Amino acid sequence: MEPVPLYAPPVRRGPRAYRRQIRGLGPALGLLPPLVIGALGLFLLRGNTDSTVRGVLGFLLAVLAAPGLLVAGAPLNSGTGVYAAAVIGSAVVWLLLTIVATRRATRTPVATWGDFWKEYLWLAGAVWLGVVGALVAANLMLGGAFL
Fold first, then answer.
1. Distance from CA of residue 61 to its chain's centroid?
2. CA distances from 21 to 39, 118, 122, 139, 146 (A)
């Protein structure tokens, strides 16, 4: 009988410690994609006075990063307090989403970071699909004046 070759190195400190690591670091790492997307959107919007494409892309990235901006009426309402509350609310939503993703990814005894990112992207994709759907619906209701 031949020994079975190992295709992956053993998990350091065991699977339980690795699952704890995913559950501990997952929520912090899950906040990074919306943070990067939001920073890119803010960069595109900052100082934009004449580019329609840059403005639309910056606005789209901003609401993908902070879906609470749509709830607060971001393009139609103004005010630092409204935007700050919307961004903080969106951060709470993303934090809850990453906690759910970590729990779903670590249901199996042998969980990996790939499992976490798969679960995270499914949940984030649903949020982003809802944001795009809300933008399309608002555009239709406003008669095409929105985008």
1. 11
2. 27, 17, 21, 43, 44
Q: Which tens digit of pLDDT belongs to each residue from 69-82?
A: 888 876 666 777 88
Residue 5 lies in a domain: no
pTM exceeding the 0.85 threshold for the entire prediction = no
Map residue 131 onto helix, strand or coil: helix
Can you tell me the distance from the alpha carbon of 132 to that of 79, in angstroms, rounded to the nearest whole number? Answer: 23
Instruction: Give the burial class of 51: count Cβ atoms within 10 A of its Cβ; 0-12 exposed, 13-18 middle, 19 or more buried.
Output: exposed
Q: Are 61 and 41 in contact (CB under 8 A)?
A: yes
Which among 53, 93, 86, 52 is positioned nearest to 72, based on CA atoms?
Answer: 86
State the residue range of the domain holding 130: 27-141
